[in-house]
Structures are given as C-alpha cells and as structure tokens.
Amino acid sequence: MLTRYLFDNLATCLFAVLACMVSVQPVGLRADDGMIQEQEQQEMKYAIAIHGGAGSSPENYSPEANESRRQSMERALEIGTEVLKNGGSALDAVEQVVVFLEDDPQFNAGRGAVFNEHGSHELDASIMDGATKDVGAVAGVSRVRNPIQLARRVMTESRHVMLGGVGAENFASRQGLIMVQPNYFDTPATLQRWMQSRQRMNGQSNNEIELKIEDTGSYYGTVGCVALDSAGNLAAATSTGGMSNKSYGRIGDSPITGAGNYADNATCAVSGTGIGEQYIRHTVCYDIAAQMQYGGKSLAEAVADNLANRLDPGDGGVIAVDRDGNIVMEFSTGGMARAAADSSGRFEVLWEEQPAGAAEGG
Ligand code: ASP
C-alpha cells in the first residue's frame, strides 16, 4: 500500500516537473530570441558615404547629365549598401562602389579619367583597411581598367603599399586584372575639357598656372567611398584621373595615405577630393582622424576645422564616417556629388549645392 502511495506521488511529481519544463522552455527561448535579435540589430550597424568629385556643381551639367550622374550615384549607393546589409566587409563595399564608378565614363576615375598635358591618362587610387591600417595604392597607371582593384591587390598580394607606372601595370597583369589600351579611358567630354584647359593655360608657364578647382577637371568627378561595416571595421577608397592637363608624371593626393584617403578603426574613414597638392601639404585625411584621436574632436568638428583653417576656400571637400556610424560630407567648392546610407534607413543622394562650411549628417 505504502509502496503504491509513494509510486503514485512520485509519478505526480515527475509529471509536474515535466509540465513545468515544457511550459518554461518556450518562454526561455523567446527571451533568448529577443536578445539575439537585439544583438543582431546592434551588430548590423553600418554606414556608407560616397563622393563623385568636389568640382561637380550641378551648374556645370545639363539637366539630363545631372540626372544621369545622380542615377549613377544612387546605383553606387545601392551596391555599397547591399554589401553592408548582408554583413559584407567595409573593404568590399568601398572597392565595389569605386569599381562601379570607375567603369562609368561620367566620372573622373577609370573610364572618363581626365587627360594630362601630353593628352594621355595617368590614374591614381588607394584603399585602406581601418582594422589593420593596411594600405594599397597605385600611381600613374594607364593600362589598368580598375585602379582600385589594383590598389587592393597591392595591399593584399605584395610586400609594399604603393606601386607606380609600368611596374604597377606589370604587377596588375601578373595578378590577372583586366588590362586595357590607354585610349580606353578617352571620352568626348574629357577631351573637350582638356582642350579648354589648354586654351586657358596657353602662354602661361607652369609656375604661373594657379591650381583652381574649375581648372582641375574635377567637374568630371574623382570618386571616393568610406564605410563602416557591421563588424565595426572602417575602410576608405579613392580613385581619380587627377587634374585635367596636369603635368606628365604628376601624382595627386588620392594615392597618398593620409592626404586623400585614410581609415582607422579607432576614429574614422575619410576620402578627399579637390586640389590634390593642398591635401598633400596639409595631410587632410589623417589630420581629421588625428584631431579626433588626440584632440577629442567630433568628426564634424575635425572636418570643419580642416576645411576652414587648413585648406583654402574652394580647395575641395571630404566625405567621412566615424566608428559610431556618423557621416559627414562637407566641401568648400560650388558643389560635390555625394550620397549616404546607413542601417537606420538613411538612403540619400545629394545633388544641390551647399553653403560652404555647413556640415551634413551627424
Ligand atoms: N584630388 C584629385 C587630385 O588632385 C582631384 C580631384 O579630387 O578632383 O588628383
């Protein structure tokens, strides 16, 4: 009898414990799910900004050309956002965006690069990984379809950080990158622009020629992209044909780390556009990061200080993203094609002119 009583009660207890486990388990899972979702949302934080050159005031283009360039910027933003949204790296995002814009003849990078004084093209590009501070840069290449891809190969497949001219091209072909004839980069628009620059500079010696944004051919748009990915890594990429009618052999700021391009996970990623000589003299992109790191400034303050106090009015602009995903796109020229997106849902291409000194984003 006693045995039977104990057995019945034990069975009831076991049943009760099991029932509890069954009813508690789903609640526990739901709580975990919520935490995981929240974590994923936090981890999926990303931000991206793109520029299409600091001379690109809408006034310089027909309404059709403006619309077509705007559409390209939008497509570039979609490409970069897609990479980041799917958990891709900032490096992949900036490279893919810049490849797309290099292939678009409407921009002064890759196809559509401006002419130098000899009527040929010399392209510069660089990419930087903010996580490792690894850099890849190429200068003065004329036969590589996508200089930014070559820059990335220099970073990952060589012992060096920068290669130039024929040596860089030989490396590109050994790497299996697409090689082109130098006239691949010609477009009727850049040819016309080059002829106008030559007429304006006709009779002046090299020293007398003052570098102004209107004379640089930046109307055609150097391109750059900065991004923060969901793993918290920053990257920057910049690519250009340089300045229209530039001296043969001239190298600008775009391939020079800290001048026209910079990324450091501790602070920000920056891409510059404008008079390259000024960006080199003032190490603009690094200075923005340094003001944040050593001066405790916000990204917007560091950018504003560079445009107001280090560069001269009209020298150019920058796009930048900091490690928290704040985006700043500022310029002191008549216009700068620019676009930004982030994980909060921001997705915009900005085309209108902006009064100098007015920061955007935050
Ligand atoms: N910074 C580029 C250079 O000097 C030109 C540009 O941004 O338009 O080569």
Main attributes of the structure:
362 residues; alpha+beta; 8-stranded mixed sheet; 4-stranded antiparallel sheet; 40% helix; disordered C terminus; binds aspartic acid
Structure overview:
The chain is an alpha+beta fold. It has helices spanning 2-43, 63-85, 90-103, 147-157, 165-174, 188-201, 276-281, 284-295, 299-310, and strands at 47-51, 123-129, 134-141, 162-164, 223-228, 234-240, 261-263, 268-274, 316-322, 327-331, 338-342, 347-350. The chain has an 8-stranded mixed β-sheet with strand order 4-3-2-6-5-1-11-12. A hairpin with a 5-residue loop joins strand 5 (223-228) and strand 6 (234-240). Helix 2 runs antiparallel to helix 3 (90-103), helix 3 (90-103) packs antiparallel against helix 4 and helix 8 packs across helix 9. The longest helix has 42 residues, at 2-43. It is globular and about 50 Å long. The model is unreliable at 13-31 and 355-362 (pLDDT under 50). Bound molecules: aspartic acid (ASP).
SS-based structural class?
Answer: alpha+beta
End-to-end CA span: 78 Å
Low-confidence stretches: 13-31, 355-362
Which small molecules are bound? Answer: aspartic acid
Shape assignment: globular
Helix content: 25-40%
Number of strands: 12
Q: Compute the number of helices.
A: 9
- Mean of the pLDDT scores? 86
Largest sheet: 8 strands, mixed
- Residues in β-strands, percent: 15-25%
The strand line-up of the biggest sheet is 4-3-2-6-5-1-11-12
The SSE string, one letter per element, is HEHHEEHEHHEEEEHHHEEEE
Radius of gyration: 26 Å
